[in-house]
Amino acid sequence: MNNVFYFDWRTWWTMVRLIRREQDPARRRRQYRTLCVVVPVLAALHTVTFALDPIFFPVLRRTEVRGPVFVVGHARSGTTYLHRMMTNDPQFSYVLLWEMFFPSLLEKKVLRAVLRWDRRLGGRLRGRIDALDQRLFSKSQRVHESGLFAPEEDEFLLSMSCASGFWVVHYPYVEELDFYYVDDRWAARKRRRVMAFYKECLRRQLVLNGPGLTHLSKAPIHCGRVESLIETFPDARFVVPVRNPYETIPSFLKLMQFAWSARKRSEDDMRKSFRSFVDSSYHYYQHPLDVLDAHPEVPTAIVDYSDLVTNPAKTMLRVYDEIEIGMAPEQEQALAGEKGREYRSGHTYSLEEFGLQADEIHARLAPLFKRFGWESSRAG
After folding, report:
1. pLDDT in tens, 355-371
2. How far apart are CA 171 and CA 168, in angstroms?
């Protein structure tokens, strides 16, 4: 058990240097203030509280992360939809969006206590938070449903460590900020340190949510670190949604375009990053499947997106069976309501919008087109 808060100084310094590219002086000052003041202050706070956690909560020393379930797949392949369905099952522990930015158990306990007291006193604080929630996410709900009190990608637990892909949303310099090829490119020592810290964050979340639960993770960025996850959690189980890349790649680029445009990023910066994202997309499709094929002992369910959205109840029953987990009665009841109800997204996109060539995508992922029969479902 390691109670040292991890901080990636090299990545932090890279982001500080990248701010010099910002042409708007006011935005450049805000970014310097964020990275040079806000992040160090919060990291110092997390360092102290992280170390205090086992002192205030001795149960942490006896808590183990057993048999976690990781939902990994290319962004826009149904990971959020599948993860949200699984969170209906009370046997799972997961992380809410606001909790991502407070990795310490002490911090989360204090903030949850504040919310409980606020509820008893009339809920004025929660009302203000809900109003903030509405302002932050109202415009993006059509693209990606989210909220401060919604389950989200637990990789964001690494945000204040400067080791999370969260930062790419703010700084579209994908070539300089590598959060994507962890298994293949990160030094072994760094990879082990980051994954050990991530495990400690999950341990704290389990204590927070209740002993005996199974951690449920969803993070498309984990596609590049499946081998590292297996090394860190030898009893892990994986659920891998797969969807026609003609649909996922432009959909993901559209999502990032929305996020960057809202932050007034330049078209040139976005175009350069789109090319890097397309390259990483090929890796994100192939790498998890290659690693899991090489580890037949790891319980794995591969889920076709079309099956998930047209028959979610039947698909989820198969997922539970293949990852060798019993389904709680509450989940069975929730899935009964999903029968015959097809998921639809209001998000629109196309290959042409981003200058993508279907032939290139097909050539790069030809074995997967054949494996999953995507030829007949070409979109865009």
Report:
1. 888 999 999 999 999 99
2. 5
